[in-house]
Amino acid sequence: MNKYTVWILVLVIFIRLYLIILPSFRIDMNSWQAWSTRLAEVTPLHFYAPNYFSDYFPGYLYMLWFLGLTFKLLFSTLSIFSLPFEYYLKFFTNVFDIATAYFIYKIICNYKQKAGFWAAIFYLANPALFFNSSVWGQIDGILTFFLVYSAYCLLELKSAYRFSISSSLSILVKPQGLAIFPVTIIYLITNYKYKKYFSLLLIPIFLILLSLPFFLKDPVLGLFHLFQKSANTYPYTSMFSYNFWAFAGWWIPDSTKFSAVTYQAWGIIIYLVMLVFILGPLIIKKGYKNNFLIYFAMALASFAFFLFLTRIHQRYLFPFFAFLAVSAFIKNSMKLKIIYTALSLIHFINLWYVYYYYNYVYTNPKFSSLLIFKFLSANYNLFTLFNLLGFGLLILIYYINTKEKHVQKIS
């Protein structure tokens, strides 16, 4: 590390914080503000109600409760429905992004000591990710932090119990964190003694205990019932996502059938087949001993989750980039870094399109005349194809690397 890299890091963080002042994604931010207000009024004990909409899990709701209370304590004259509170929320998410970058740094330093700082910058400077956190105001960065930290605990610290606690927190924030769970379970089973398997019991225990204040009337199955409700909120193929189902069309009911099988079922089948391809080398070729392959498999599992399941929002790709960045820098692979950069730009375009549509076009159709918006509307399947090609290239590189020597940790 030298003064130039430090200044680059400072510049990246400054840009992230400066962009906070740009307009948020209005629909989501209205929800955060409304939920924070409700939590301050009724507490978690009465938050969920049949006549009140909220499809988010308690993890982020606890944070909104805390942020709402602290904001009112610091700025008693300001409303939660104000720009300063929006900035407060987006600053909070950026803190998690920076924390994720720190643990990426920690991971990479175990393999390529001088590359750790650049890996952290590479992650923080991703235009799609800081657009998501700093402009849009979404919370996928919080989920990603817990996923990266859980992987760090499992692979680097060799702590099954910390892994289980962090994994339960990731699920409590967003259930999409389950995307990497098949890979982490394979690693736990193959690299730990059987006594450590009991650490997995902490996950349901923590989920029940931490969600208990929200589900006093249904303490055991309350979170599961919320998951069912949330999953059924958008029963469509693809919500403006550049994934496989975009070829069938955006916002098509996934109950639509092809060869007597629903799109939703086809999505699950294709996803499971892809998981077999991803997990196969870890088991058959003993890739579970190679931490580089494990991180790579986490990236691929997250990407497959986004590409092939139905009911997927464009933002669900966020965690993929953290694990691909780790993989690229452990291996010091220029190919992976180029693919990472290309997919980041495509993801940024996907996010910007949705952001622009709902913030401007949805309320005033005249904004649809913007040339770039018209181009993206007419050619979204081109970007979908690029994503699928990127996945294919990553699978190929993954399989090639199953034949190569392991990247050893620095002793």
Strand content: under 5%
Radius of gyration: 21 Å
The number of distinct β-strands equals 4
SS element count, helices:
17
- Mean pLDDT over all positions: 95
Low-pLDDT parts are none
Instruction: Tell me the overall shape.
Output: globular
Distance between the termini: 20 Å
Strand order of the largest sheet: 1-4
- The helix/strand series, from N terminus to C terminus, equals HHHHHHHHHHHEEEHHEHHHH
Amount of helix: 55-70%
Structural class: mainly alpha
Most strands sheet:
2 strands, parallel
Number of domains: 1
Plain-language structure description:
By secondary structure, this protein is mainly α. The chain has one domain (3-401). The chain contains 17 helices and four strands. The chain has helices at residues 3-18, 26-42, 58-74, 83-109, 116-124, 127-136, 140-156, 160-173, 181-191, 202-211, 222-231, 263-284, 291-308, 318-331, 334-361, 371-378, 380-401; strands at 238-239, 257-258, 261-262, 312-313. The strands form two sheets. A two-stranded parallel sheet has the order 1-4. It has a two-stranded antiparallel ribbon with strand order 2-3. The chain is globular and about 60 Å long. The model has no long low-confidence stretch (mean pLDDT 95).
